[in-house]
C-alpha cells in the first residue's frame, strides 16, 4: 500500500541554520504531496503542497520539490527561526474516486530551534 | 476556505464514562470528513471517514464510533471510555479531488483517568 517515510527526530538546530527534513513515499500512482506543520497543542496546518512531478511548493520560506524519479518531497528552509519549532508531517493523497482517497501521513518530525 | 470547529478543546473523563466530540465545517459543502487520533509522541491514526450524510467507514476496530447527522457535522462517540482512548483527536475536512489538502480543526485533548 501507499506509505510515507520521514525522519522522526527530534531534529535540533541553531537559529539561522539551514533545514532539511527528508520525506520519501511509496505509491501505486501519482499522488499529490503535502507538508503540514503542527505547533504545540494545535491542529495541523497546511504548509505547502505539490500536485505533479517537478512542482515546487513554497510558503513562509519553506520549499519542497516533487521528485518523481527519487519519490521524494524533502522540506527545506534556508534560515530557521525559533518560531519554526514544531512537528512537521509529510503526506500524500491519491484519488480513488471515493472513500478516504488514500490519505497517508508520515509519523512526523519534531523540529527544535535553539536561539 | 474551509474552517473546522471542534469542541471541547480539552476534556478529562473517568474510565467507563461516555464521550461525544463534535466537529462542524464552514466554507464548503459535501466534504469528506475524517477523525484522526494522535497519541503522545506518535503520528496520526485515521479512525473514521465519511463521504456523505450517514456514511461512515472505520479504519481500525476500537471502542469508538462516529456519526454524520448533517452534511457538515461529524461526531465521535463512545459509550464507555477506556484508558487507552486518551489522546489528541483531530477532525479534518477536504473536497474529494486528489489535489485538495485536508483542513484540520484545533483538536480535542482527551485524558481518560
Describe, in plain words, how this protein is organized in 3D.
The complex is a heterodimer of chains A (115) and B (113). Chain A has 115 residues and is mostly beta strands. Chain A is built from no helices and twelve strands. Chain B is mainly beta and 113 residues long. Chain B has no helices and eleven strands. In chain B, the strands form two sheets. In chain B, strands 2, 4, 5, 6, 9, 10 and 11 form a seven-stranded mixed sheet that branches. A four-stranded antiparallel sheet of chain B has the order 1-3-8-7, with no helix packed on it. In chain B, a hairpin with a 2-residue loop joins strand 5 (44-52) and strand 6 (55-58). The relative contact order of chain B is 0.34. The A-B interface holds A 31-32, 34, 36, 41-46, 49, 51, 89, 91, 93-95, 98-101, 103, 105-108 and B 4, 6, 32, 34, 42-44, 46, 49, 51, 57, 59, 90, 92, 94, 96-107, 109.
Chain pair sharing the greatest interface: A-B, 26 and 28 residues
E-strand count of chain B: 11
The CA-CA distance between the termini of chain B, in Å, is: 37 Å
Which regions of chain B contain 5 or more consecutive residues with pLDDT less than 50?
Answer: none
- Identify the overall geometry of chain B: globular
* Fraction in helix of chain A: under 10%
SS field, number of helical segments of chain B: 0
- State the order of secondary-structure elements of chain A, H for helix, E for strand: EEEEEEEEEEEE
The structural class of chain A is: mainly beta
Helix percentage of chain B = under 10%
Per DSSP, the total helix count of chain A is 0
Please give the largest β-sheet of chain A.
6 strands, mixed
Low-confidence stretches of chain A: none
Please state the average pLDDT score of chain B: 91
Amino acid at each position: 500500500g501507499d506509505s510515507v517515510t520521514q525522519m522522526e527526530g527530534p531534529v535540533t538546530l541553531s537559529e539561522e541554520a539551514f533545514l532539511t527534513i527528508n520525506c520519501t513515499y511509496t505509491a501505486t500512482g501519482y499522488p499529490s504531496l503535502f507538508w503540514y506543520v503542527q505547533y504545540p497543542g494545535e491542529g495541523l496546518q497546511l504548509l505547502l503542497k505539490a500536485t505533479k512531478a517537478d512542482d515546487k511548493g513554497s510558503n513562509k520560506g519553506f520549499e519542497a520539490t516533487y521528485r518523481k524519479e527519487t519519490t521524494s518531497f524533502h522540506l527545506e528552509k534556508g534560515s530557521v527561526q525559533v518560531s519554526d519549532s514544531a512537528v512537521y508531517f509529510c503526506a500524500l493523497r491519491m484519488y480513488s474516486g471515493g472513500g478516504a482517497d488514500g490519505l497517508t501521513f508520515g509519523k512526523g518530525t519534531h523540529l527544535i530551534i535553539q536561539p | 476556505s474551509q474552517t473546522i470547529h471542534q469542541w471541547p478543546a480539552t476534556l478529562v473523563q473517568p474510565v467507563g464514562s461516555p464521550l461525544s466530540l463534535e466537529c462542524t465545517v464552514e466554507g464548503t459543502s459535501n466534504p469528506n470528513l475524517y477523525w484522526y487520533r494522535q497519541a503522545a509522541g506518535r503520528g496520526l491514526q485515521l479512525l473514521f471517514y465519511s463521504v456523505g450524510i450517514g456514511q461512515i467507514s472505520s479504519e481500525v476496530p476500537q471502542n469508538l464510533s462516529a456519526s454524520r447527522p448533517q452534511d457538515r457535522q461529524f461526531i465521535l462517540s463512545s459509550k464507555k471510555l477506556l484508558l487507552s482512548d486518551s489522546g489528541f483527536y483531530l477532525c479534518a475536512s477536504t473536497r474529494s479531488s486528489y489535489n485538495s489538502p485536508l483542513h484540520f480543526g484545533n483538536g480535542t485533548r482527551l485524558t481518560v483517568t
